[in-house]
Write the structure tokens for this entry.
Amino acid sequence: MPDLKVLVTGAAGFIGYHASRLLLARGYEVVGLDNLNNYYDVSLKKARLALLQKQPSFRFEQIDLTDRDAMAKLFSRERFARVVHLAAQAGVRYSLEAPHTYIDSNVTGTLNILEGCRHNAVEHLVYASTSSVYGANTNMPFSVHGIADHPVSLYAATKRANELMAHNYSWLFKIPTTGLRFFTVYGPWGRPDMALFLFTRNILEGKPIDVFNNGHHKRDFTFVDDIAEGVVRAAERVAAPDPKWSSDAPDPASSSAPFRLYNIGNNQPVQLMRYIEVIEECLGRKAQKNFLPMQPGDVPETYADIDDLVRDVGYRPATPIEEGVRRFVDWFCDYYKYER
């Protein structure tokens, strides 16, 4: 498998950095794409990028996904074997404030990726979706074989749109596509707008933390190394048509086209209050908690059914939060020079 050239979009991002690093470790040539926007601290993105650029098999392209001409030229010039599309405007709450940003990046940007794959014989497109697509569905654990058509945030709607767009291109142009629904990713080099980052910083600085839904959230917290492993393994397993798929009883997770959807989650939901306890244990400090109601666009609980991932990709995320949070806290204190 190594020696293949892989495009990773969002390579300076949280998951993109970890996936790129793993692909490089496995011998792939990686072209990383990112627009280095200022949604959060650009210096953090540049620090991730600097580590990747130490690898001789990595090259960086600063391009915005919405730049149709630049994207077309990139695909035509590089002739990628595989594409790992992780770039997106992330965040549920921010989608209430900046909806056009989500359509531009997540819908138009993904269309440009699909067009690049279509016109340049890309062997396999793997792209990031999200557990947020399950929205108002409360049938746990969330299964890729169930309905995911009631999103409660625009962010989720754009990611669901990506899945439908991918199926269309798989159907019309026989492009193998695999969508990965990530469940609450956390770990070193995480985004500053994510709960673990905010909680850790505020606890260290003696500031209160905002605990939404009065602490009653449950999340399928998934360590970023487990996500990266799942991404790379999925990229190596080219999506194929499902011979059992029936148009009389259509399965949303597969198709008679080369199209697949998988959940990647830890398969062990954790109470938000337990998550905070683990952070406190790692820091040796107690949090001041500011309990708040559920926020618009949030869901009370996530829980991934990963049976298909285990069966088809042969992988099961397994990092417990006690280990994952400790590794984040160690990185955070080292990177930002905090004393514990």
In short: The CA atoms of residues 19 and 229 lie 7 Å apart. The longest strand covers residues 124-130. The first helix runs from residue 14 to 25. The mean pLDDT is 95.
